[in-house]
């Protein structure tokens, strides 16, 4: 969401409806609006989990700590709960070392990696080579691309999988939400397809971050704690996996 009232009002609505995890990034350009919404919400800062991400031009020893200070000023916070390296591009090793220092200084509570699923080497460079392991890795994940290889790899390292595009994203054109199997399960539970998918993420143990500025969808997306998917429901949704991703930019395209 862009900086300004749209972002601020979406976050205010979310906090009013009971959300306590807000995910953003420097690249999204709305950290100031998120900070303003948190302050105006009346919800104590310590009850809200704020996640943001550094862009590759902020990576590197002598650069990343300064970027964290700027991020804190944009938010108007004393600390950030979780900061990701947004892409495995540039000096992400130097960036990670300075994120570790930001943790030691208390400016950041935990650190993670985003989109480090291009190959094992990038993942291992951080997970096996650094002093602090990532708390989470954020990747595209939804019923059509369940990322089972990465589920196993992250579980082995006790790293949380956080799903972006949990409902398929705009690129999917709402295809997953129209899936007849998911809608059949939704009918049986008296829920929407989106609620079934979000509940599936939660029961799989993923952190899930659906994004919208529509107040109706904000309310819909959090009303998933009054029911539970059966083992059969979960198995049927797992069977939809074909590792079909909707965001298909290559690593070379990101680098360039």
Structural commentary:
The protein has 256 residues and is of the alpha/beta class. It has eleven helices and seven strands. It has a seven-stranded parallel sheet with strand order 1-2-3-4-5-6-7.
Q: Major sheet: size, sense and barrel closure?
A: 7 strands, parallel
Structural class: alpha/beta
Helical residue percent?
40-55%
Strand order of the largest sheet: 1-2-3-4-5-6-7
In quaternary terms, these chains amount to single chain
**Which shape, going by the Cα principal axes?**
globular
Supply Rg.
Answer: 18 Å
Number-wise, the strands total 7
Can you write the helix and strand succession as a string?
HEHEHEHEHEHEHHEHHH
Mean pLDDT equals 95
Outline the low-pLDDT stretches: none
The span between the termini is: 24 Å
Q: Please report the number of helical segments.
A: 11
**Share of β-strand residues:** 5-15%
Question: Secondary-structure map with pairings?
Answer:
Elements: H1 5-17, E1 21-23, H2 31-41, E2 49-54, H3 64-75, E3 80-85, H4 92-104, E4 108-114, H5 120-127, E5 136-140, H6 148-156, E6 160-164, H7 180-189, H8 193-204, E7 207-208, H9 215-222, H10 231-238, H11 251-255
Parallel strand pairs: 1-2, 2-3, 3-4, 4-5, 5-6, 6-7
Features of the shown structure:
13% strand; 43% helix; 7-stranded parallel beta sheet; alpha/beta; 256 residues; 7 strands
């Amino acid at each position: 969401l862009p900086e300004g009232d749209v972002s601020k009002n979406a976050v205010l609505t979310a906090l009013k409806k009971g959300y306590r995890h807000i995910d953003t990034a420097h690249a999204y350009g709305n950290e100031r609006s998120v900070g303003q919404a948190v302050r105006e919400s009346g919800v104590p800062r310590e009850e809200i989990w704020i996640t943001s991400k550094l862009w590759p031009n902020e990576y590197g020893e002598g650069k990343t700590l300064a970027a964290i200070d700027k991020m804190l000023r944009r938010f108007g916070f004393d600390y950030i709960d979780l900061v990701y390296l947004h892409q495995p591009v540039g000096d992400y090793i130097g960036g990670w070392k300075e994120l570790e220092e930001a943790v030691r200084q208390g400016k950041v509570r935990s650190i993670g990696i985003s989109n480090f699923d291009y190959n094992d080497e990038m993942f291992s460079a951080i997970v096996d080579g650094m002093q602090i392991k990532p708390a989470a890795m954020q990747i595209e994940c939804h019923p059509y691309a369940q990322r089972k290889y990465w589920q196993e790899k992250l579980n082995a390292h006790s790293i949380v999988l956080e799903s972006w595009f949990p409902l398929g994203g705009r690129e999917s054109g709402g295809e997953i939400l129209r899936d007849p199997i998911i809608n059949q399960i939704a009918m049986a539970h008296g829920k929407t397809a989106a609620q079934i998918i979000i509940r599936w993420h939660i029961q799989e143990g993923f952190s899930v971050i659906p994004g919208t500025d529509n107040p109706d969808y904000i309310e819909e997306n959090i009303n998933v704690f009054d029911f539970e998917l059966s083992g059969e429901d979960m198995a049927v949704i797992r069977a939809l996996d074909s590792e079909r991703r909707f965001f298909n930019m290559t690593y070379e395209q990101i680098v360039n």
